[in-house]
Each structure stands twice: as structure tokens, then as C-alpha cells.
Amino acid sequence: MIQKSEYGYIIKKNDNYLHIVFYNKAIVRFVYTKDDRLPKSTQAVIAEKINIDAEIKDNIIKTEQLQINIDKKYLTLKVFDNEGNLISCDKNVDFNNRRVEKHHLYEKGYYGLGEKYEWINRINTSTTNWNSDVIGLTSLHNSVFKEYHTAIPFFIGMDESKSYGIFFDNTFRTEFDFNIQLNKSFYFRSEGGHIDYYLICGGNVSDIVKGYTYLTGRMNLPRKDFLGYHQCRYSYMNRDELMSVAKKMREKNIPCDVLYLDIDYMKNYKVFTIDSQRFNDFKDMVKKLEEMGFKLVTIIDPGVKKEEGYSVYEEGMENNYFIKDAFGEVYVGEVWPGDSVFPDFLRSKVRKWWGELHKSLLDKGVEGIWNDMNEPANFSTQSKTIPKDTVHINDEGERKLHSEIHNIYGMLEAQATYHGIINHIPNKRPFILTRSAYSGTQRYSGIWAGDNTSTWEHLESSIPMNLNLGLSGFSYTGSDVGGHCGDCTAELLIRWTQLGAFIPLFRNHTVKDSIRQEPWCFGEDALKIIRKYIRLRYKYITYLYNLMRESSINGNPVIRPLFYHYQNDENTYNINDQFLFGENMMICPITRPGQSNRMVYLPKGEWYDYWTEERITGGRNIITQADIDVIPIYVKGGSIIPRDEVREFIDVSIKSFNIDFYVGESGSYSLYLDDGISFDYIKGKYSIIHFQMESNNNEINIIYNIEKNKYTVPNIKIYIHGNDNTKTILVNNKKITGSCFKLKI
Ligand code: GLC
Prior knowledge:
This protein is of the alpha+beta class. Helix content is 19%, strand content 30%.
């Protein structure tokens, strides 16, 4: 019954075929088709198929790690791990409706699925994926919509000791239903294509995220300076307004690295143009900003104004680059510029052209590109996007309907932008932000969560949203701090800035006509606190950068739900309002107005209150005080955490910085340093120093050794926290005095 195919195995039943293909020992793909050819994976997948040794016995495929039992009649599957645990078990596979139903076995949580306004655990919820331009009308407390800007058809099922992931690689509208109560089952299905999914097996959630990002790729190491604070508004309308924001940041001593220009910098919203009346001598303006330490990011939308004489429109028309309607005419929709046409990014020629168009901005010193409205948004239809029957042409000349391409449209634009920038400026890491995405977009771009509102509900819901994005392969994410739609208040901006300081993308942005939302807009008292937290962010830039590097290597998210490191503790499975920043710093934001204390769950182990340095034993809930200038933060005993000197902006050559050792269990940390901007690290220009802390009854011994020293290591000061003066401190086995000392490397 089971036949060997070129890659993997094939099983035929009447007119249906099941293909089974391995990508590594723990990742196996199941595809149901009407013929014996294995379809190509979508743009999401970058891993290669591999041959794996297997024992075939009747209807069973047994490898070193997995056993797959195939039902002869229905082609349903049971998958066991190598200890005989049933990991995944089909209830029903409906080929015609592209629907797979699986038994709910042991899972206590279902996580992932990217950007959704839902609690972190998806159990007993359902959702659909169809990239949509939604203005923040919904929240955790009022889930009217299911469809947001991204389609990430990937989830993780988990209990204390087992985990698996399923990536349903289908770009049509997909549906996931985890309402397990009725039938003790869950299902996923799609509106088109065929059933094509990957089962990723492993013990811990981190194994699954690692496997999923092995399959779909990882974020590239981002620029260090872009990890600072970003200030945006729709829009800074002219040169003076933008420059005055820049000056105020410096005058008021607020660290800030990135400023944005929203759509009003263009001439009549025509992409790749600049309104030179409002932004005279653009290049000179960017240079002045650069001298003050600012990087400028400009927005680029995919909608191209339909206007004779406008070069982007004319070039695209001449070369047949735009999406057509069902009758073969160029499809005209409506976006900010009025009547607009949409590049067909499915073709590599079009992507190349689009990428090259960025030269005009890059040559003027623009350092990053913000891809918005790329679902694509369209004001002229009820669906708010372009019709499903519009036509794309791929590189092989095949026609593809928009219903299949829609969910990858934004990803293809980000890909075009990424290559455009890198081709023009090869030795600088590109910064791109996209609103719309499909699985794999993390290889090109970060994500911000689109148009949220200035409400407490949206502050709160941004936490599980960003955590689930992290579990879905996206480490570089953030939601607009202060909220986009509506008017912010002092208290909301303070609390949101406290949270944003620990979210990978830290950007304050708001809509046209809302009240102003820059840090100084709510008076001196508010400014003082907001400044304190932006400065706190700058203390942990090197720590954050190291987390970003880790993510670029193994997919570990920067911010993590508690169960990421405490999977055997069931109390962590539904925590939505606390998260880990890396492994050892726990952030507990305030999500309600007027609130000045909150409950915090401390997992087992010893924790430090970051502010008071009080040592607290975990494995319980505590109540903690959180006056308006405090966000509760806890640091795990045994942590080793680098801490920067705060600067106005991140000039990458740091002269000195600190490392905090929090005495407790033994701990280790590897510090990575490079120039933060170029790709020279790929050629080996970086340094790595390993630190270890051993703590026993009488001694704390700090051992360090240098693995690589190809990038200047600054002076490092070491601080010991939590020593009650009873222990002797040794560094590389040599006794020292005091709780702070300099390290010479
Ligand atoms: C969209 C974006 C928003 C931007 C606005 C104008 O609504 O989501 O961030 O400010 O368009 O470009």
C-alpha cells in the first residue's frame, strides 16, 4: 500500500493520493492530491525535503523519531513519538472540502496563529485568516472581527510534557476551529487549493518554534540602532514640523533613534515621489536628522495612482506589471491617491522593478521602509480589498486568482522591498515594517499591528497578540504605543510606554486629527515618567540585541509567554498580562486605568523585584504595588544581564557598559557584540564572551572566557546584586572586593 516516491512516500486510495515527505527527523508534511505529483510548497517554506530511513510495515511508516499509522480506507493518520505517545490523531479528512479534523487528545493549550485580538490560549475559539484592513474596532472584550492583517496558518498544541505544531500551508482563506467541547475534536480547512500541512514534533514549545522557523525561515539580525525608540505620526506634514519633533527629543533629553514620514510627504500620495514644497531639499533634511542621530523611515503603499504622465504608473502599464480584472483589463481600485492600480508582486520581474524604485528614497538617505495597506486595502469594494477573481500571472506565465494570492500579497511586497534595499546598499541591514504578512514574511520584515485604538483594551490585547506573533515566527513586532485611532490620555500613554519599552518594536504612532501623542504632550509629570521608561529601554538595548540574535539563529521569540520556560507549570497556560523579556526578566504591565497594584504569578524559583531588589520565592501569586511611575518587573535569581549606559541615540561604538549579576542559582550568559549595522558579522567580525556564575554557601565565582574577539569589546563594569556581604566574590577564581568592579578584556 505504501510506495516509495522520489521524496518520501505515496499512498493511493481510489482517486486520492496522500504524499508523506520529511523535512527533518521531526518535521513531516502530509499532502492530499488528485494526482501522483507532489505540489510545490508555497513561498513560505525554505527548508529542503530530505530522505529519512524508515521501516515500512503494511500501513505503518516508522522512523527513528516518529511512527505514522495510515488508515487504509480513509487515509487518516495517527502519529506517535518514539516513546509511543500519540501526538496527533485524525478523526476525519475531507478531501473535497479541504478539511482536516483531529481528535482533541491531551492539549491544554493551542497557541500561535499570529496577529489576533484574542487571549493567548486559542482553546474554545475559532478564527479565519484573510488579510484585512481593519480599523481598530474590536478588542479582546469585543471580538467582532476574526480577520486582521496577517495570515499565519500555524498553531502549537501543548500540555506539560508534549508539544507539536501544525503549519497548514495554504494561502487561500483558512479557518481554524478549536471548539473542542462539542465533539472533542478541532479542525482546520481552507476555501481553495488542497490539504497540505506540516506536522512539527518535539517535547518543548521551543522545539516547535525552532522547527517551524527552520521550515519557514528566521528573522535576519536587525540593526541595533533600530531597537531604540521610534516616533511617528500620521503625518508630520512638512520639514519644519518633522525637524521640530527631532529637536524637541534632544532638548527634552528623550532618547530616540527613528522618525517616520507617513503618506503626506508624497505629492498627492503618489508613491516614490516627494512633495518638495512641504519638504524642501529632502536630502539635506535627512542629513540634518542624521547629524542629530535620527534615522528616517518613509511609508510606501502598493497602490499606484492612475495618472497619465506619472512615471511609476506609466512604466507599470507599459510593462504589463499591474493586476488585471477578470476581463483582462488592468484592475482599478481606490486608495489614498484616488483611482489606483496594484503591482502584481507574484512575478519576480515586478518585484525587481518595485525594489529598484526605492533607489530614489535610499539615495536621499532614507534608512527604512514602512509597507502599509498591502493586504491590499481598497476603498472601492465592500470587501475592502481587491476582488477575488482579479488575476495574477506567475513566473511560469500561469494565471492565479487573487483568492489564492491575496494572503501572500503583502509578503511579496516586503520581499521586493527587502531585495531592492539590499541590492542598492549591500552592506547595511535593511529595516522594513509590513502590515500584511503570511508565514515566512519574518525573513524580510518586522510587523506592526495596524490601526489599534487609544483604549485600555487595546493596550491589554496587544500583549497576547505580540506573544502569539512571537510563537508564530515573528520576533520583530509591536503595536502602536498610545494607540492609533482616537485620543490618548496621559495615563494611557504612560502605561503603554512602560509596556512598549519591552516590546521588540517600540513605536509611538497616531492617526490624523487625533490629539498629539509625543512624549511631552501631556505635561511635565507625564513626560518625566515617559522619559524614564524610554531611558529604561535604552539600558537594555544590548540585552535586546542579543535576544534578537538568538531569535535569528534558533527562532526563540524575544518576548515569551511564561509557559515557554515553565511548560510543566499549568498555571502559566492562560497568563495574558505577564511575559518574559528573554528568559529571565518578567514584565507585568498595568492594563487598567487608575490601577496601582496588581497580582503577579511568579513561577517556581527565586525572583528579584527589579525596583526594590527584594528577593521573593516563586511558585505562587503575589500582589504588588504599581504606582503610576512603576511597571512591575521581576528578575530571576541567577540571571546575568547586560545593561547599557543611556545615550540620546544608539551610536554603535559603545565605550563602556555594565553587566548585572543577580545572585541565586547558577547562571550563564553569552554576550555577543558586533557593529550593529553591517553584514560584516557574517564574515566573522564579532565578539562573544561567555559568563558563568557559580554561587555556593561562601562564594560567588564569576568565570568568563572569550570565544571570539573580532569586534572591540568595551570596558565592562560588573555589578553583583543580592549578595548579603557574607560571600566572597571571585572573578576567574581571583578574589576581589566590593560589589562593582571593572573587567579588562
Ligand atoms: C493606515 C496605517 C496607519 C497609517 C495610515 C496612513 O491606516 O495602518 O498606520 O498612519 O494608513 O498612512
